[in-house]
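Can you please make up a whole protein chain along with its backbone structure tokens because I've never seen that pairing?
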Amino acid sequence: MTTAHELYERGLRDHLAPALRLLGLTGGPRTFVLPDPAHWALLGLVEQGTDGRLRYTVDLSLVRRTDWAAAALPGPRPDPRAVYGIEAWRARIGELLPVGEDVWWEVLPGPRWRVALEDSVAAVRHYGLPELRRRAERDRGGGGDGDGTYLSPADLEQVNATLAAVPVARIQRAELLAGALVLTGAWTRSDAAARTVLRGVARGFLSAQDERFDVVRCADTLGRPLWDFGRD
């Protein structure tokens, strides 16, 4: 019987790596590069295997090429699984998914063994790569056109506890960009309940009279605009 490790290696070679290359990444089989003239924009597979089982997740890393050259660290490029302290940004892919926590995929022998591979490629396509590109573009503009993170993950949990009771998908990020407070989450334009609840959340933020923003914008996890809420 084919083992999980053998299926995983076959899956990397025949399915996952070709799919990621079709998305514009180069390299492989465990480290992939998103071409960018100013950055090392990287994706790396992190693997764990015990007792004949194997699971994996994805680390994403953004390092300025000038910072990497100045650091004179070993290797021709950074390893996205390593922490160097010079990264412009790094994250594990679970942080970018709607669940907002660590996510691992396991390759299991059987007729549906490729499901994990297909699911992880979808996560990279819809969440990992858009965020990696967004971070690179922001950093290329000298840190972006805003003031960065508005609320920490811990601060967001207070708001998300209220959303969970409704229920509405949690806020994944709250950032100041070009005079707007941009809230990002796994919402859709057709979700009337989310629009109503987020209007109330926006009013709460706007009531603080923070001079750095006069509108609250809601976007989905691909950065597509959904709704704008201004001061009444």
About this structure: The longest strand covers residues 39-50. Residues 115-140 form the longest helix (26 residues). Residues 142-146 have pLDDT under 50 and may be disordered. The CA atoms of residues 205 and 216 lie 8 Å apart.
